[in-house]
């Protein structure tokens, strides 16, 4: 499945945020106007149609039943769209929140002794940079990525800087792997 580029989503979201500010400012007046323009004669209360004991307009009611009243349709549509908008924004925010890196408070907690129990579940290499990545299910104390990189560079664990780069969402290039190999070779020669 092909996705829209992130830059386009961000541009559209910025434009939508501008419109949302304007919508929020203009909504009360429009809502009031739509309420006042509803069919029938208001008998008090919220400006709705005639109620029990109110005056009815048989001709007006018949005229508006054949084709929908624009104000009635717009009020219904606006009400429905505002409800949908709230649900869509909350759903999108939930997905984005789920895929955020751990908060600074959570990351700090990972570096404490109390977090030592997490080693059974989380990649030991990622915990060094205060990031949580599940370990391989087949055994070992590293995630698949760290294990593959460690094997590729000839070390027990990949260098911290490359794990940090990956944890931040950075792209690991062939040059990064070559640098990690060189660092590992230099470290071995010093021993």
Short description:
The protein is an all-alpha fold.
Textual characterization of the structure:
The protein is 61% helix and 0% strand. It has 191 residues and is mostly helical. It has 2 domains: 6-98, no CATH class; 104-190, no CATH class. The radius of gyration is 30 Å and the shape is rod-shaped.
* Average pLDDT score: 81
Classify the secondary structure makeup into a structural class.
Answer: mainly alpha
**Separation of termini?**
50 Å
Bin the helical content: 55-70%
- Major sheet size, sense and barrel closure: none
Q: Determine Rg (CA atoms, Å).
A: 30 Å
The ordered H/E elements are HHHHHHHH
Helix tally?
8
Number of self-contained structural domains: 2
Taking pLDDT < 50 over at least 5 consecutive residues as the criterion, the unreliable ranges are none
What global shape is seen? rod-shaped
Percentage beta strand: under 5%
Please outline the helices and strands.
Layout: H1 6-36, H2 58-66, H3 70-98, H4 104-110, H5 124-128, H6 144-153, H7 160-167, H8 174-190
Short key terms for the protein model shown above:
191 residues; mainly alpha; 2 domains; rod-shaped
């Amino acid at each position: 499945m092909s996705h829209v580029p992130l830059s386009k989503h961000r541009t559209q979201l910025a434009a939508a945020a501008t419109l949302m500010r304007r919508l929020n400012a203009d909504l009360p007046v429009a809502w009031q106007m739509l309420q006042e323009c509803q069919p029938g004669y208001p008998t008090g209360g919220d400006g709705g149609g005639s109620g029990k004991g109110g005056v009815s307009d048989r001709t007006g009611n018949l005229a508006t039943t054949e084709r929908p009243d624009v104000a009635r349709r717009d009020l219904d549509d606006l009400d429905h769209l505002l409800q949908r908008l709230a649900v869509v924004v909350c759903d999108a925010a939930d997905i984005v929140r789920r895929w955020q890196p751990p908060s600074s408070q959570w990351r700090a907690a990972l570096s404490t002794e109390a977090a030592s129990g997490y080693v059974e579940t989380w990649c030991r290499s990622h915990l060094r940079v205060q990031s949580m990545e599940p370990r391989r299910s087949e055994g070992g104390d590293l995630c698949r990525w760290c294990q593959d990189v460690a094997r590729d560079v000839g070390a027990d664990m990949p260098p911290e800087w490359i794990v940090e780069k990956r944890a931040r969402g950075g792209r690991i290039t062939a040059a990064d792997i070559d640098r990690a190999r060189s660092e590992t070779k230099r470290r071995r020669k010093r021993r």
